[in-house]
Amino acid sequence: MAETGLVRFPGSLDPGAQEFIPRNPNQLTLFGPPPPQPLPPPPHQVFYPYPPISEVVPYAQYAAPPAYASAAPTVCVPIPPSSAAATRAVLLSSVPSDVSEGTVRREVEGFGEVRWVQMERVCEGIVTVHFYDLRHAERALREFREQNMQQQQTRLRNNYASYPFIPNTPPPLPPNNLSSQLLPVTPGRGLIAGQPVWAQFVIPALKAVPDGHNQGTIVIFNLDSAVTTSTLKDTFQAFGPVKELRETPSKKHQRFIEFFDVRDAAKALKEMNGKEINGKPVVIEFSRPGGHSRKYLNAVGNTTPTLVSPTNIIAPLHSNNALVSYPPSTSRETGRKILKTAQ
After folding, report:
1. How many Å apart are CA 132 and CA 263, to the nearest integer?
2. What is the pLDDT of residue 30?
3. What residues form DSSP beta bridges with 255?
4. Rounded to whole angstroms, how far apart are CA atoms 8 and 336?
5. d(CA 322, CA 30)
6. Calpha distance 137→86 (Å, rounded)
7. N or C: which end of the chain has fewer CB atoms below 10 A?
8. Would the pLDDT of 307 be above 50?
9. Do 163 and 113 form a contact (C-beta atoms < 8 A)?
10. Which domains are present in the chain?
């Protein structure tokens, strides 16, 4: 085997020599951001002493404007429900929003004495007029609607006349047979501030007018069952015209009397309450709103009018006084059918 051990290379290196350290070694240059510049010295602060209080000129004392504090939020009065039966409350829609209560009263008092005018929703073009007499409310509604229908018919004629390509222009409409049987419409009546409006009956709310519990109907209690209807009607007609006298089949001692005018009902209650009829003292009260509302709601169940605008509706009056509202006519064919029906 070969001998193992240290391998010596030929050369002149001295293993015992000292370590060599260069005097000028090569330095590695590192590149980086420049050092931050020193901050400039702060400027010289000038001190201004406050002047004496006697030399201070005060600011002008301006009056602060009054702060606006909004009032309590106004509760929006709901629109009363429609009624197919005649009531003393007539709701007018499409009324000019800038009209005053005095103007409305002046326009509607031509039909009869006005009990109250609700102007809470006049900004929406809605006004409710309450009459004392039911006949006055019926007259007002009839004339308001007739004026409105005349405006609609005139607008339809002008609309057809503006289309020269239509070969057969409908002739002028003849007067309505029903309108000819009623009282003639006085020129200018049936308008609010010179504008046509739409009218319909609504069920009056109890709190809508003062003494709203008086809706023209009184109920008589503790009545002798032997008293006939004609006798009772003759007794109470002394206070005003009686519209209707109703009996309760299950309660022979109770009768309902409805007057045309609510003031006559109040007069009858004041004069006859506690008086004797056929030897028995009777108790008289105003009819409760429950039965009153049910009567109108039953009528509404048969024919329900809707709150519509006079600019998009034509609703003829019917012989049974039911007020029917028809959908608006948006096409030429629908308008032609309406004209033919009116003829």
Report:
1. 7
2. 63
3. 220, 247
4. 129
5. 103
6. 8
7. N
8. no
9. no
10. 79-211 (3.30.70.330), 217-286 (3.30.70.330)
